[in-house]
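Response to reviewer comment R2.3. The reviewers asked that we include at least one raw input/output pair. We reproduce the pair for AMP-binding protein here without editing.
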Amino acid sequence: MTFRTAPITYTRKENTVPPTTFGDISREHRRSYPSGTAIVDDQHRLTWPEYDARINQAAHALQAAGVEEGDRVLWLGQTSFRVFELLGACAKLGAMLCPANWRQSDEEFAFVIDDFDPKVVVWQDEEIGDAVRAASKLTQRDPVWWQHDTEGKDSYESALATQGADDLWGPVDVDLPLLVIYTAAIDGRPNGSMLTQRNLLAMAHESSYLTRSDSESVFLNSGPLFHIGNFQWDALAVYLQGGTNVFVPRIEAEAVLEIITREGVTSAFLMPPTIMQMMQLYDPDKHDVSRLRGGPFTPLWNGLLAEDTTPWGSTPGGFGQTEVSGLAVVNGHGGRGQGNSGRPSPLARVRIVDGEGNEQPVGSAGEIVVAGDVVHAGYWNRPEINARRMRDGWWHTTDLGRREDDGSIHFLGTMTRMIKSAAENIYPAEVENCLEQHPAVREAALIGVPDPQFTQSVKAVVALADGSEVTAEELIEHCRERIASYKKPRTVEFVNEIPKRDGVKDYEALDAMFGGGGYPGGDNVRA
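Raw output as returned:
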């Protein structure tokens, strides 16, 4: 018997079939699941063919408004199926969609509009209309505005109604950015993380493996779409597998119970405070949660839900951030190891490095750096930050960790201080900057105080300018008017001086003085 020993070379042909893109998912599902329900949102119930037709109408409408490959669309509204519709349309066009945090102030909205420079803004009047209208007067941009929660002239629905549903678009580059999520402001301003079509498909494949999602799955999009968590657990997994995505604009425990019962929901993005409210309202004669998979929070349901034996449910937790498509390291791979975060997904590579990029030995702490299909395309319009963070072929997370003897990763904490309130990440620099804009404030520092319900409560420590007076309530209101309400301090402590170490605010001293603690780390998941 003879064996071939010479290397085999392959030449890529000009007519090579292009890879699957995000826009191809709805194209194929309309053929594979012609009667399957893709979308449920209040009175809207769409099969996969109906949904893909609306995606095509949206793509035509965006094109008519001037959106081309590389252009941007901004969503200023609550959770809605139209976000997914626009995501599919932008995927076919090669454009980007950003669902902005709808809880923001008018100034924050205006910042995102100016920074992201969208060709089209789709906005909502209910609850946030005043802030959006004020932002439209503050911004320097002049996008096309479509209101999604109305009908008639300048509405989203009227823009779609005049368009055909034919699919005219050919292959696009799978590495084009598609979903942009503005992350918490580390350096005083938020940055838009650009997730590519490849990133989202990698996330969907990983999540569907961990959650065992399939075409019978029904996911309730009850989390914010400006947060990576809802997409990862389990919206994109269910989308990829041809299941049903149900949408609710915001969390109301009674309404969520009714939707779970009516739609036979199998998974939902729910946080412990909401689950506890739902348990108080649960009535076995009215509600049916028998199909629901509880994930890591199954014990909170007090025996109502069956044990979750999926890799995610039985071994939850991991390490990640928006910039690596959610969780890049999870306990669901290889079982819970010596570390607290598990092992990288098959589409991610992880190293622990020192300040010069040298890989650290097992057991030694260093920065967690990530490469592979999960790493985003960088921040929108931030070339200097991208150059600093995306170097030597690795994404530098600014998070501290170590590799354990069994190969698992132990997340030790963020290298840039962060406060965790419920599901939201709050970085002190942004809130401190807001406080220091008040004329009575000379200097401010932010710490997190352990909170049994929200993980941490935000406390401000403030040194006043000479001769100035201001109350805690006035400072809290000052922040509420200028930044998202969840970022504002809950309490304020006044001091003569902010303690310093080598000229830098000494947060450890402030923690010791005022009971700070409970920062992300240990067994906490960061995403």
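The mean pLDDT is 92. Residues 48-64 form the longest helix (17 residues). Further pairs are available on request from the corresponding author.
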